[in-house]
Amino acid sequence: MAAPRTRVTLRTLSGIYVKRYSPLNLNHHGTLCISAALPWHGLQLRRTFLSAAYSCSDTWRRRLDSPVLKHVKMDQFAIEVLNNCSKAQATAVDVDIFACNVQEPMHLTDLENILFKFRATPNTTDTLDSTHYAVVRAFLECGQRHRLMEILQNRLHYGIFPDHYSSNMLIDSFIKDKDYRGAAKVAILMMLQEDFDNVLGKLLALYACHMDLNHPLGVAVPAAENEVETPVTDNDDEVVIKRVHWIKNKFFDDHFDLVDHELLLGKTLAMLGGRYFSDTLLGRSYELIGWGLYRKWAIGIERLEKWAGSGSDDSIADEAVSLTTCRGTNKAKKLLSNFLTL
């Protein structure tokens, strides 16, 4: 049965009307149900979260029967690979063999060190696609998801980029444990790479962001790296030399330089809604919410103007406008209020 909808008139500054509907709903009962999420489309497709068969665990375990992996002594091999990394002689095949053969949590530290050191060698450009997948799989099966996320978020020093398949498994794992913040962080990684081409992946990403938005943790935003202040002296001619690990770029790219989780979540929703669910009620609603979280009020209002002036049967969920309005600055609230008819 379709969810009830309340029609509300949405007025633009030019006097053109757009419809917005309530409620905006994704299933909260452990299933990603497209027919429940999109009742206005009349879709009958229904899919639960990823089944146990999706991970192909039996096939993955059979990799250990390969002669290449079967007789590898992991402790000794780890030392050899690390030594070769120090000499810039390690190969991508060596790293891949080690990553694919990790079975115990005790070897995750070795894997992490190998990835870090190998990333600094010229051969890092030869990293195999299977290595990215094997790393994700190793940490997932050892129950070290948050440790894995630290590696995935530090792309510069580890160079691990999950593919569609492993990203889906990772999001699914977080969602099933109701760790929506962790799932949303995976969706944010997909946004940073602008890679939502996988149909199932973008649905999982949207659900993860939706649930994270509705289940805030109330944690502080991670601050940027602490900077050591240079002591002020009376002698202006004195030159103070300070060693730093990394020189920060003064240019802010508004993408990879973002650290505020709310801004990242907003940009992810704006990208998902605007590019991958465009011209649908779901897409327009989440795009508007995204621009609000991203604090790009002018773009949000511009999008409202466009939808209002298109002349088509455009609609926006009531909750999308309400949520965007309540999060806005005073100026944004005043602008958005011009669109509402009481």
What is this structure, in a nutshell?
This protein has 17 helices and three strands. With 342 residues, the chain is mainly alpha-helical. Strands 1-2-3 form a three-stranded mixed sheet.
State the main characteristics.
single chain, 342 residues, mainly alpha, three-stranded mixed beta sheet, 17 helices, disordered N terminus
Describe the structure.
There is one protein chain. A three-stranded mixed beta sheet has the order 1-2-3. The chain is globular, with a radius of gyration of 24 Å. Helix 14 runs parallel beside helix 16. The protein is about 50% helix and about 5% strand. It has 17 helices and three strands. With about 350 residues, the chain is mainly α.
Low-confidence stretches: 1-25, 27-45, 219-232
SSE-based structural type:
mainly alpha
Largest sheet: 3 strands, mixed
Strand fraction band?
under 5%
The separation of the N and C termini measures 29 Å
| Average pLDDT over all residues | 79
Whole-angstrom Rg: 24 Å
The run of helices and strands is EEHHHHHHHHHHHHHHHEHH
* Physical arrangement of strands within the biggest beta sheet: 1-2-3
Percentage of residues assigned to helices: 40-55%
C-alpha geometry? globular
Number of helices: 17
Number of strands: 3
